[in-house]
Write a structure and sequence with these properties.
With 120 residues, this protein is an alpha+beta fold. It is 43% helix and 19% strand.
Length: 120
């Protein structure tokens, strides 16, 4: 039986393999959530560098949030990543949910990013 870490790695690799096939040169909006925070970054895989990043640990968000691990915090991170992406000139991305299901905090972040101007 595979360990939890192996299962998560296998699932995230499967998602990324599919994204690589449909990306067509678009950067990847990668999302990670922990039990206390949520992180998002837009990555240019061709150049191998991070274009934009945002998380609940950012100074601008940290003070206004009750906790970094709820749906409202995820929505705030989604809005922030969309703002920073438009400033950097990125509008089209592919959404990389990693090993996490599209539900709850992941879904809230994605919907807030769409409302902020990102298209995926």
């Amino acid at each position: 039986m595979a360990s939890r870490k192996q299962s998560l790695t296998r699932r995230s690799d499967r998602v990324r393999r599919h994204l690589k096939a449909v990306a067509n040169g678009r950067p990847r909006l990668s999302v990670h959530r922990s039990s206390k925070n949520i992180y998002a970054q837009i990555i240019d895989d061709a150049a191998g560098r991070t274009l934009v990043a945002a998380s609940t640990l950012d100074a601008g968000l940290r003070g206004g949030l009750k906790t970094g691990a709820d749906v409202s915090a995820a929505a705030a991170v989604g809005k922030l990543i969309a703002e920073r992406a438009t400033e950097a000139g990125v509008t089209d991305v592919v959404f990389d949910r990693g090993a996490f299901i599209y539900h709850g905090r992941i879904k809230a972040l994605a919907e807030a990013a769409r409302e902020g101007g990102l298209s995926f």
